[in-house]
Amino acid sequence: MNKKSIAITAFALFSLFFGAGNLILPPQLGFKSGNLWWLVALGFCLSAVLIPILGILAHAKLQGTMFDFAKKVSPTFSLIYCYIVYAISITLPSPRTASVTHEMAIQPIWDSSYLLTSIIYFALVYVFVVNRSRILDVVGKLLTPAILIILLLIIGTTLFNAHFDFGLTEFTNPFTHAILEGYQTFDAIGAVVVGGVIIISINLKDSKASYESKKNVIRKAGWLAGLGLFLIYTGLIVTGALFHNSFDVEISRTALLSNISSKTLGNTANLFLSILVGLACFTTAVGIVTGTADFIKGRFNNSERAYVITAILGCVIGILMGQFNVDYIIAVALPALMFIYPITIVLILLNVLPEKFAPSKVFKGVVITTIIFSIPDFLGSIGWGESVSGIAPWIPLSQFHMGWVLPALIIFILVNFISKRPK
């Protein structure tokens, strides 16, 4: 395992996390962050970069599958967790790719409906999923560098011509708001899912590689990919902040990215970016539906029928959800993320820790505590906050929608202390 292997793995990880849908989030965060853009960047990168990369480091340690992440709680819990993650994946981030494609690549050219776009889009997704074409693998390798070059040009042009007037922030709690916005990248969930794919890829390339050498490659590649994501996301946040007076305050996420691109590089470059983003969204949707269908196929004794049925279901759900605009899908995703993201974060953190600090008892205690203390935030996100209004003030950090953090930390320390106490 040499430097070339590390570089290739780092770029693969960067490409997997660098979803086209994610690109619409940082500019609007920056647009509204004002002079506190740096605090917003830290919050966003905490949940959208650091946690996902820690997820990759956990995979480097486990060198297994997504199922291994939660099996210390119990095999049944781990299986349920896997089902929930895949269900969320085909219901929210997959349809969102169709909406992003419509708003950035279709709507500016043709006056058609979201529904028509999503029907054609997911019909094509289905064709690629059932035929498992490798065309997208080749295209995907070209898309990320092309999008990256355009984004670097946008960021560089903005910084070169900027007066560095950021204005005032619109956020009451910029740091925690940015952390929650980072949930919308789905990258922590992505780390749990795609980390196993990276392991398989490395094993196929070098079946004789030792556990330690694979661990070393994945860890170094993970940090390199994380550095790249940090620089791009921070650059987009700064860019958005520098355009705070240039557009209407209610501008949508996709429109903001398109308009910034037009102002910095011109309409031709913006059209090129829109097409590239649309293609990148398509490869992401194919990957999500294929991954979900593969998982269900494996649960049903490698049944090809289960694969096809899941692919059809995933595409039908994509059409139904894809007919809504991006901002609506992001709003709808919030309750699901308020439930599954805290669980995913603690699973990642526990799997990164040395075994002596994270035995099965610690996993069970921390995960159960996280689920219980995430309930008020989940209920609040679906409009039932009044039902727990008497409890929430007693939970530290609940005003920031992070009421699970301190209880989970306390249980982690307590269970470790009790389990290590002399009997």
TrEMBL record:
<feature type="transmembrane region" description="Helical">
    <location>
        <begin position="271"/>
        <end position="293"/>
    </location>
</feature>
<dbReference type="Pfam" id="PF05525">
    <property type="entry name" value="Branch_AA_trans"/>
</dbReference>
<dbReference type="InterPro" id="IPR004685">
    <property type="entry name" value="Brnchd-chn_aa_trnsp_Livcs"/>
</dbReference>
<feature type="transmembrane region" description="Helical">
    <location>
        <begin position="402"/>
        <end position="419"/>
    </location>
</feature>
<feature type="transmembrane region" description="Helical">
    <location>
        <begin position="305"/>
        <end position="322"/>
    </location>
</feature>
<dbReference type="GO" id="GO:0015188">
    <property type="term" value="F:L-isoleucine transmembrane transporter activity"/>
</dbReference>
<dbReference type="GO" id="GO:0015190">
    <property type="term" value="F:L-leucine transmembrane transporter activity"/>
</dbReference>
<keyword id="KW-1133">Transmembrane helix</keyword>
<comment type="similarity">
    <text>Belongs to the branched chain amino acid transporter family.</text>
</comment>
<feature type="transmembrane region" description="Helical">
    <location>
        <begin position="182"/>
        <end position="202"/>
    </location>
</feature>
<feature type="transmembrane region" description="Helical">
    <location>
        <begin position="7"/>
        <end position="25"/>
    </location>
</feature>
<keyword id="KW-0472">Membrane</keyword>
<feature type="transmembrane region" description="Helical">
    <location>
        <begin position="142"/>
        <end position="162"/>
    </location>
</feature>
<feature type="transmembrane region" description="Helical">
    <location>
        <begin position="362"/>
        <end position="382"/>
    </location>
</feature>
<feature type="transmembrane region" description="Helical">
    <location>
        <begin position="72"/>
        <end position="92"/>
    </location>
</feature>
<dbReference type="GO" id="GO:0015818">
    <property type="term" value="P:isoleucine transport"/>
</dbReference>
<dbReference type="GO" id="GO:0005886">
    <property type="term" value="C:plasma membrane"/>
</dbReference>
<keyword id="KW-1003">Cell membrane</keyword>
<feature type="transmembrane region" description="Helical">
    <location>
        <begin position="112"/>
        <end position="130"/>
    </location>
</feature>
<protein>
    <submittedName>
        <fullName>Branched-chain amino acid transport system carrier protein</fullName>
    </submittedName>
</protein>
<feature type="transmembrane region" description="Helical">
    <location>
        <begin position="223"/>
        <end position="243"/>
    </location>
</feature>
<feature type="transmembrane region" description="Helical">
    <location>
        <begin position="37"/>
        <end position="60"/>
    </location>
</feature>
<feature type="transmembrane region" description="Helical">
    <location>
        <begin position="328"/>
        <end position="350"/>
    </location>
</feature>
<dbReference type="GO" id="GO:0015820">
    <property type="term" value="P:L-leucine transport"/>
</dbReference>
<keyword id="KW-0812">Transmembrane</keyword>
<keyword id="KW-0029">Amino-acid transport</keyword>
<keyword id="KW-0813">Transport</keyword>
<dbReference type="GO" id="GO:0005304">
    <property type="term" value="F:L-valine transmembrane transporter activity"/>
</dbReference>
